[in-house]
Amino acid sequence: MSARPDDAYAVLVRRALVPTALVGLVATAAGFGIEGSRAGLGALVGTALVCLFFFTTLLLMRLTAAMPPKLTLGVALLAYWVKASVLGMILLASPLLTWFDPVWFGAVVIAGTVCWMVLHVRGLWTARIPLVEPDPPLRRRAS
Question: CA dihedral in degrees (87, 25, 39, 105; nearest 10)?
Fold first, then answer.
């Protein structure tokens, strides 16, 4: 059974976002358990950042799916630029943020990104989402 195009976003949330969030939560629990609250908070902030970064992409793609492709591309590129800028500002400010461990933060961001990418590709690969909707067959006129 193949997924409908409007289900593609739900498929990707189920197959990529949820497991990525779970990996991040496991890392958060490990951070709290191994090194204490600073490590746990660093892992939690990293998890939230990765999930928010990728979920907003899915949400924007869902909201702009019916728009012309050039507009969708523009929205996607603008959103990516904004998200990358925010990530850069957070990374620049991280030495000033003493309430979380930047090592745990960075490790969880890297692990979450790799997890997302692998699961996202696997989810798209196995979802059987048609790229083109076939036209309905023409009905023959009764003569």
Answer: -20
- What percentage of the chain carries pLDDT values higher than 90? 35
pLDDT tier at 16 (50, 70, 90 boundaries)? confident
29 vs 21: CA distance, rounded Å: 12
Rounded CA-CA distance 132/119 in Å is 23
The predicted model scores a pTM of 0.77
Q: How far apart are CA 100 and CA 67, in angstroms?
A: 41
User: Cα–Cα distance between 101 and 28 in angstroms, integer?
Assistant: 11
Spatial distance between the Cα atoms of 128 and 1, rounded to a whole number of angstroms: 8
For residues 20 and 54, is the Cβ–Cβ distance under 8 A? yes
Which tokens is 133 given?
């909707």
**Token match 């990418």: residue?**
117
Which residue, chain included where needed, has tokens 């193949």? 2
